[in-house]
Amino acid sequence: MRKSLSPARLAQLALGAAILAFGLYNIHSRCRITEGGVLGMTLLIRRWTGLSPAVSEVILDALCYLLGFHYLGREFLPRAAAATGFYALAYALFESMGYALPDLSGHPLAAAVAGGLFVGLGVGLVVRAGGAAGGDDALALVISKRTGWKIARAYLLTDVTVLILSLSYIPLENIACSLVTVTLSSFVIGRIQAARPRGESEKIVKSSQKIRGS
């Protein structure tokens, strides 16, 4: 457990979660660009209920981790819980500070690219530290086990479902740009994940590298 939550690992989890929260608050939630999975669902909940992603992320992640505990194992959960906590604190902090970037609402493609880079870098650092930036992996594992689908298909189902629901408040053009965000962030996550140090549990690698469809 102490090795799992070493100071260096915690610092990387905190940095990745902060970068992710910064991008989600300053770009995604402001410019009506969304993500798939849990991240996109928190933005959807914020739009229709006003509940901050700093709160909804914790609730949704906890539910997903509870469902997927059997498949993820004990070693994974402390890291995932730490990343969720850091994300919630960082998002709440950025909300209290106000927007720090120019408004890209009139340039959805530019917002999609910038948002994808922030998400890719943030989630990539969290994944490289052996954690998870959302409950998507746990939920996808449960769906895969219950249906017999391949894990990639399970992730596609959650992402597409959230994007379709997001049409309730996001124009079709922005949904198309959101696909750019998802694709770009997946690429960046994959590049960072490929540079991860050896020695991690194969089970953790397989579960965490699936985040955001990478």
Q: Gap between N and C termini, in Å?
A: 27 Å
Q: What spatial form do the alpha-carbon principal axes imply?
A: globular
What is the helix/strand order? HHHHHHHHH
The proportion of strand residues reads under 5%
Q: Assign the structural class, choosing from mainly alpha, mainly beta, alpha/beta, alpha+beta, or little secondary structure.
A: mainly alpha
Q: Give the domain tally.
A: 1
**Rg over C-alpha atoms, rounded to the nearest angstrom:** 16 Å
Query: Biggest β-sheet: count, sense, barrel?
Result: none
Q: Indicate the percent of residues in helices.
A: over 70%
Describe the structure in your own words:
The chain is an all-alpha fold. It has one domain. The chain is built from 9 helices and no strands. It has helices spanning 7-31, 37-49, 53-72, 76-97, 108-128, 136-147, 151-166, 172-194, 202-208. Residues 199-214 have low confidence and may be disordered.
Short description:
This protein has helices at residues 7-31, 37-49, 53-72, 76-97, 108-128, 136-147, 151-166, 172-194, 202-208. By secondary structure, the chain is mainly α. The chain has one domain (7-213).
Please describe the structure with a list of short key phrases separated by commas or semicolons.
single chain; mainly alpha; 9 helices; 74% helix
Write the layout of secondary structure elements.
Elements: H1 7-31, H2 37-49, H3 53-72, H4 76-97, H5 108-128, H6 136-147, H7 151-166, H8 172-194, H9 202-208
Helix pairs in contact: 1-4, 1-5, 2-3, 2-7, 3-4, 3-6, 5-8, 6-7
